[in-house]
Amino acid sequence: MPKDHNCPKCNKIILPDFNYKAGDKVYVLNETQKLMRDGRMDVQEKVSVVTVVGVDPKDQDCLEVKTANNRKQSWFRYSLVPADGPTQLDYRRIGRCQCESE
């Protein structure tokens, strides 16, 4: 992960710009949950790189993306992060910068 995404004060990750255009590569986090026989929940998370196809004309916060196997999916704009930056799992592991909101 490039260091230019980290805040110089707190060293946590700065949120990206969420203005995506067609052709942008972004990370999506796919999560699957499965109930085990003993009552526990098995959660698996997988990060994938997809390509933004366009914006949904009915809802500007919903983006259409194309997966690696050419399927089209709709994703909420703020659940995607740029492919050249940190992933959603990095935000959970390292934390999000709060310095700008102070």
Question: Which SSEs are present, and which pair or pack?
Answer:
Elements: E1 25-35, E2 41-55, E3 62-66, E4 72-76, E5 81-82, H1 88-94
Antiparallel strand pairs: 1-2, 1-5, 2-3, 3-4
Commentary on this structure:
With 102 residues, this protein is mostly beta strands. The chain has one helix spanning 88-94, and strands at residues 25-35, 41-55, 62-66, 72-76, 81-82. Strand 3 (62-66) and strand 4 (72-76) form a beta hairpin.
List keywords for this structure.
single chain; flat; 5 strands; 102 residues; mainly beta; 1 helix
Give a brief description.
With 102 residues, this protein is mainly beta.
Structural class: mainly beta
Task: Give the overall silhouette.
Answer: flat
How much of the sequence is in beta strands?
A: 35-45%
**Distance between the terminal alpha carbons, to the nearest Å?**
26 Å
Largest sheet: 5 strands, antiparallel
> How would you spell out the order of helices and strands?
EEEEEH
Radius of gyration: 16 Å
The total count of strands amounts to 5
Mean pLDDT: 83
- Our count of helices gives 1
Q: Helix content range of the residues, please?
A: under 10%
- Low-confidence region ranges: none
As laid out across the biggest beta sheet, the strand order is 4-3-2-1-5
